[in-house]
Design brief:
By secondary structure, the protein is an alpha+beta fold. It has helices at residues 5-19, 33-45, 55-63, 92-101, 129-135; strands at 22-28, 48-52, 78-83, 104-111, 114-117. The protein is built from 5 helices and 5 strands, in the order αβαβαβαββα. It has a 5-stranded antiparallel sheet with strand order 2-3-1-4-5. The longest helix is centred in the first third of the chain and has 15 residues, at 5-19. The N and C termini lie far apart (42 Å).
């Protein structure tokens, strides 16, 4: 099989969604390179990994999966944020306020193969996966 860019992007997005049990789906305003450097430094301070998904590929992937309800959220610069294992002490409210200052808006949370909007995820207080499973 010949690997091209489109197949690579599609497979990387599928793997990222499949392998990670706890993800944050967010949008961000379009940024220039100078602003992006400060945003990337802020994400590293929060110990968050990020992946910028490509809209058309991601819509096709989600349309054919169990996450079809997430498809309308993907309209602008869309990011998938993954907390590192070391960031267990960071609370949800601190994270949302810091991400808002970095021009990110959290739209949904993926927890154990289910997607929750922010009002649905009001019981989640920390980013620890095991604690959140017991709450939900």
């Amino acid at each position: 099989m010949q690997l091209n860019v489109k197949n690579y992007q599609t497979s990387k997005t599928k793997d990222y969604l499949r392998k990670n049990n706890f993800l944050l789906f967010s949008i961000s305003a379009n940024q220039n390179s100078q602003n992006w450097l400060t945003i990337e430094q802020g994400l590293n301070k929060l110990k968050l990994g990020y992946y910028k998904v490509y809209n058309n590929n991601t819509r096709k992937i989600l349309k054919n999966s169990i996450f079809t309800n997430l498809t309308p959220l993907i309209n602008s610069t869309f990011f998938v944020l993954k907390p590192n294992e070391k960031s267990k002490t960071l609370t949800k409210y601190n994270l949302i306020s810091i991400l808002n200052s970095l021009s990110f808006t959290i739209l949904a949370i993926k927890l154990n193969k289910k997607i929750y909007s922010l009002p649905q995820a009001k019981n989640i207080s920390s980013l620890d996966y095991k604690k959140n499973i017991s709450v939900m």
